């Protein structure tokens, strides 16, 4: 067990002022497991107890080059000299927009905001204005931020195949019940389900919001055939295809997940990796749709295109576009997968990888799940028991197996070797623990 005494004592202090002692619910890992960070550098972070971790969470994806990357931070410091925000525009916005359009052909026109949530909200509003239809379809297991209209889903915990489908419920309290009327769900990799829904509700539904690699659901991945069908069905039923690339964008390929599938969204959203951790997000898409902005659709915000974030994004995108950074990350991810696989296979542990080597799900069954329902009904006890052991060894992965592992350019050969040694140790601690949990004996 590692020492978390300072984090524990800070937690007790912080919760007097901050709900759950943190600034975002997802950062609360339990009263005695919530970690407070001292600093990060490259692919590693250090907590306030001076525990060092190789980090595969990377802030849920923004860190694509590494923490405190000198190249990006120098650019961001120059962005500080510009002065912040002016309630006016700067020339750099145009340059960054041009870079995005060059990298992502579907991004014909571009608008900035600060968070993924805001970019998704903007995309939905633009789509509603364009189609004149308020209803949306979302993929089961997808996550699109914390705006009311997308905070609905199905809970499969107490459900067994054969039962009636579970009801659509809000993610939490305070979501207006009325927003449920706009919301529809379909499973991934089932084009018939999408078509059946649109046949019934084509007059109400104007957009399909989805991630071909579900960045918040073990990186469960769409079949290329399914994506081709989705594109064709959306066109046939006058439904805009909105690909949410908040996690995949500027990470899985220069042109994001759309490049991997050879598919063009009508609208797409980006955030996370675009600024290597500095807050900037993007809604982009087809010119005729995006021209709704300024022609009826309101879009903007006080902090939009802040000079620090914009300068950081300009540098990050330059690096991603003009160097081999993304190809290098992918190659390192494949090496990591091969190493993890060897360790697991040597112990007869079935496993598979989902997603992309830069954003990968580690799944403990031979065949990866095809949709959220299959994930929810898989046995993730091994992952749940392994994750805390990895933390103790100094490998930081999300305790919830729905969150994929992220890689960045700073995960070098040294990180890789160390990760594999520590992973092996953690697996060897987990196996007897699991066995004793199953037989009810004490370790
Ligand atoms: C696919 C996707 N869309 C939207 C969001 C929301 O982004 P943010 O947390 O920046 O509001 C997230 C966040 O994880 C995401 O993964």
Question: What features would you describe in this structure?
Answer:
With 443 residues, this protein is an alpha/beta fold. The chain folds into 2 domains: 36-67 and 326-439, Alpha-Beta Complex (Aspartate Aminotransferase, domain 1), CATH 3.90.1150.10; 70-322, Aspartate Aminotransferase, domain 2 (3-Layer(aba) Sandwich), CATH 3.40.640. The chain is built from 13 helices and 16 strands. The chain has helices at residues 5-14, 70-82, 92-103, 116-131, 191-201, 224-236, 256-261, 287-290, 307-322, 325-346, 372-376, 381-393, 413-439, and strands at residues 37-41, 44-47, 52-55, 109-113, 135-139, 152-154, 168-170, 183-186, 205-210, 240-244, 267-270, 281-285, 352-356, 359-363, 395-396, 405-406. It has a 7-stranded mixed sheet, with helices on both faces. Strands 1-2-3-15 form a 4-stranded mixed sheet. Helix 7 links the parallel strand 10 and strand 11 (267-270). Residues 60, 115-117, 120, 143-145, 211, 215-216, 244, 246-247, 271 line the site of pyridoxal-5'-phosphate.
Task: Summarize this structure as a short list of keywords or feature phrases.
alpha/beta, Aspartate Aminotransferase, domain 2, 16 strands, 13 helices, seven-stranded mixed β-sheet, 2 domains, Aspartate Aminotransferase, domain 1, four-stranded mixed β-sheet, 443 residues, 38% helix
């Amino acid at each position: 067990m590692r020492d978390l005494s300072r984090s524990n004592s800070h937690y007790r202090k912080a919760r007097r002022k901050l709900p759950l002692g943190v600034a975002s619910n997802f950062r609360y890992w339990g009263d005695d497991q919530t970690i407070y960070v001292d600093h990060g550098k490259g692919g590693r972070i250090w907590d306030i107890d001076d525990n060092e971790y190789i980090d595969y969470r990377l802030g849920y994806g923004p860190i694509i080059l590494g923490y405190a990357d000198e190249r990006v931070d120098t650019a961001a410091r120059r962005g500080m000299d510009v002065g912040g925000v002016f309630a006016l525009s700067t020339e750099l916005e145009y340059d960054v927009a041009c870079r995005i359009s060059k990298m992502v052909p579907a991004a014909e026109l571009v608008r900035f905001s600060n968070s993924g949530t805001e970019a998704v909200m903007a995309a939905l509003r633009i789509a509603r204005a364009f189609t004149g239809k308020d209803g949306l379809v979302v993929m089961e297991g997808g996550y699109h931020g914390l705006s009311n209209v997308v905070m609905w889903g199905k809970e499969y915990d107490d459900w067994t195949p054969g039962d009636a489908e579970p009801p659509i419920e809000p993610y939490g309290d305070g979501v207006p019940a009325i927003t449920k009327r706009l919301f529809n769900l379909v499973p991934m990799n089932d084009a018939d389900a999408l078509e059946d829904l649109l046949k019934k509700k084509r007059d109400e539904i104007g957009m399909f919001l989805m991630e071909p690699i579900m960045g918040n659901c073990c990186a469960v991945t769409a079949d290329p055939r399914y994506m081709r069908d989705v594109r064709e069905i959306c066109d046939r039923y006058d439904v805009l295809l909105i690909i949410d690339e908040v996690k995949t964008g500027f990470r899985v390929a220069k042109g994001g997940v759309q490049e991997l599938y050879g598919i063009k969204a009508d609208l797409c959203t980006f955030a996370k990796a675009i600024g290597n951790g500095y807050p900037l997000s993007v809604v982009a898409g087809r010119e005729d749709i995006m021209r709704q902005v300024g022609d009826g659709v309101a879009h903007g915000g006080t902090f939009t295109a802040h000079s620090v974030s914009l300068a950081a994004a300009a540098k990050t995108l330059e690096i991603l576009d003009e160097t081999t950074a993304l190809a290098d990350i992918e190659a390192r991810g494949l090496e990591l997968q091969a190493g993890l696989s060897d360790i697991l296979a040597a112990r007869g542990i079935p496993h598979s990888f989902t997603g992309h080597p830069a954003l990968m799900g580690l799944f403990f069954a031979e065949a990866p799940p095809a949709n959220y329902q299959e994930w929810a009904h898989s046995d993730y006890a091994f992952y749940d028991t392994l994750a805390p052991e990895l933390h103790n060894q100094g490998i930081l992965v999300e305790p919830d197996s729905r969150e994929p592992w992220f890689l960045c350019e700073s995960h070098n050969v040294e990180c890789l070797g160390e990760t594999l040694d520590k992973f092996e140790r953690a697996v060897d601690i987990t196996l007897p623990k699991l066995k004793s949990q199953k037989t009810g004996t004490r370790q």
